User: Fold this.
Amino acid sequence: MATNVTNMTLIDAVRAAMDEEMERDPRVFITGEDVGVRGGVFRATQGLIEKHGEKRVVDSPLAEASIIAIGIGAALADLRPICEIQFADFIHPAFNQIVNEAAKMYYRSNGAWSVPMVIRAPYGGGIGGGLYHSQSIEAFFAHVPGLKVVVPSTPYDAKGLLKSAVRDPNPVLYLEPKKGYRAIKGDVPDGDYTVPIGPARVAREGRDVSVFAYGMMAYYAVQAADALAESDDIDTEVIDLRTLLPVDKAAILNSVKKTGKALVVYEDNLTLGYGAEVVAIIADEGFEYLDGPVKRLGGPDVPAMPYSHPLESAFMPTPETIAAAIRDVVAY
Assistant:
């Protein structure tokens, strides 16, 4: 375990994880649109082609189905592909490859074949990306047994979870909150460490209400909780789910048992978003612990996040709207 730490951004931590995994295992390679000389549209792979060579950092055609298909084939040939989808919005042409092939390969072969691949995709709003560059796609894929779905909200977790994803014997969809790429900073140990896929993280201890979130919303929820502790004397517990599939039921139920009140926050459309599953878990297995109804805070049910900055801001939950929702839950 490394002892020295470096303060870095979320995207720096993603890049560090890929760099170290490529050094550790010569089977690891990266492919995707503009991942090579350009270093990716967000510069997540910047400098890696110069260090590891063009055979291990491979620019792909603008064809997401082929990016994933190549990754599946490479994984079946005992390589360890990291496939970048430039924006999560672009993943839909590869839906069949991910859901019907990668996720089911181990099951359909009775354990004879595994698909050790990572699919990285920046998701969510907050950068003025508009219609095709701001979607949250986690609910589609968290419904699929055979996949793991991971969403970090801190640089520490971004590095450790990505390393675990690369080493996992089966496919991992690794979603990165692009709004947080350079906005979220934190200390990251130098050198090798991993964060296990599956367990949630208690981002903030509290006694009055539980907030469940992931990605950028977990980061915002902590900000909201800290502000409420000073302004309203409300002590909020924030659970960063980190892994959406498999979901950490124990962490969810333990927190609700402790506080008796719950709010689930996500930036996807409210109806049938991932937070609905968290609410269902609490209603099904934690109802006896509740002192009030479980509430959700999400985006409005409109077809896409607007390009207009004021409308985008109205779509996305913020620390302020999260704080208001927490007040409502506590007051019930």
Remarks:
- The radius of gyration is 19 Å.
- The first strand starts at residue 5 and ends at 9.
- The CA atoms of residues 5 and 189 lie 4 Å apart.
- The chain has two domains: 7-189, 201-331.
